[in-house]
Amino acid sequence: MNALLQLLAKSGLLMKDFDYHLLRAAMVVIFAWFGYDKWFQSEITALAPLITHGPLIFWTIPLLGIHGTAILLGTAEWTFGSLLLLGFWNKKLGVLGALGSIATFISTLTILPFVPDGWDAGAGGFPAMAMNAAFLLKDLVLLVVSVYLLREDVIRALGLPRER
């Protein structure tokens, strides 16, 4: 076990800010990909049942239609991803990206209790999730990553010492 630990220590895993940069890069990729998907009718049509049941975003489809909702969500995701990317160089822009990311994942997590057929009846219903609800649970981790990036960017933008 000690040999494994020493190997991991020499691998770059302990490099200063490795986790911070890795998480930021992952979030940029996620927002780029999610934003790209929203430009296709099939994606937004598949998401429409979730969106219409979301207490924070239900209004988008009646107000903007399917196509307008796709544009809004795709543009928001690309904007937040771009701000997170720019956060590598400008922490204040990173703060804006992290705030947008937090809003995104809070919004999607609020859908979870209201997902149509989201609770697996064959397994007794709540808390057994069906796949259409379980797929939203990933947003809990993405929300936590967003909060971490926000914290780090605020600390760095203000030049404060980092406490761990």
| Portion in beta strands | under 5%
Radius of gyration: 19 Å
- Termini gap: 26 Å
Helix count, DSSP H or I runs of 4 or more residues: 7
The tally of beta strands, per DSSP, is: 0
Helix content: 55-70%
Which consecutive residue ranges, at least 5 long each, have pLDDT under 50?
A: none
Organism: Dyella kyungheensis
Transmembrane segments: 20-36, 56-86, 93-114, 126-150
InterPro entries: RclC (IPR016865), RclC-like (IPR007339)
Protein name: DUF417 family protein
What can you tell me about this protein's structure?
The protein is mainly α. It is 68% helix and 0% strand. The protein has 7 helices and no strands. The chain has helices spanning 2-10, 18-37, 41-51, 60-86, 91-109, 131-134, 138-158. α2 packs across α7 (138-158) and α3 crosses α4 (60-86). The longest helix is centred in the middle third of the chain and has 27 residues, at 60-86.
List the helices and strands and how they pair.
Layout: H1 2-10, H2 18-37, H3 41-51, H4 60-86, H5 91-109, H6 131-134, H7 138-158
Provide a short characterization of the protein structure.
The protein is an all-alpha fold.
Q: What are its keywords?
A:
RclC-like, RclC, globular, 7 helices, 164 residues, 0% strand, mainly alpha, single chain, membrane, 68% helix
